[in-house]
């Protein structure tokens, strides 16, 4: 079979889906259908009720992935981030997860996560330039 390779700097969502579909089918054939649960804890402004931060993640394949953790600068150092992480860990345990994983940058919060029992299982140096991206996990 001969195929052509075409480069585009403006891929569409349809392009993404066309690439993802056979990959997803193969992954399911090897590991089974993933049960994905999306979760979030929202921080709301007491005046207007708008979401000003929180924790967003997913549970799949027996692991929780924390995709986003954001605490407004005015609330940092007051235990809000720690409380969000404690609640996420409780949910992960309740769901029977093996562990929790996340990624963070050297200029963000690796020390914060270490204090919560996370360890580095991978890193990408000089990403972005002059910094490191850490991949961390906590076994439950």
Automatic annotation (TrEMBL):
In this protein, which residues make up the domain named N-acetyltransferase?
A: 1-140
**InterPro entries from the UniProt entry:** Acyl_CoA_acyltransferase, Bact_Acetyltransf, GNAT_dom
* GO molecular function per UniProt: acyltransferase activity, transferring groups other than amino-acyl groups
EC number(s) on record? 2.3.1.-
**UniProt keyword annotation of Cytoplasm present:** no
Pfam families per record:
Acetyltransf_1
Alphabetically sorted, this entry's keywords are:
Acyltransferase, Transferase
Q: Which PROSITE patterns match?
A: GNAT
Q: Which domain of life is it from?
A: Bacteria
Query: Mind telling me which Gene3D superfamilies this protein's record contains?
Result: 3.40.630.30
Q: Does the keyword Transferase apply?
A: yes
Q: In its UniProt entry, what is this protein called? A: Acetyltransferase
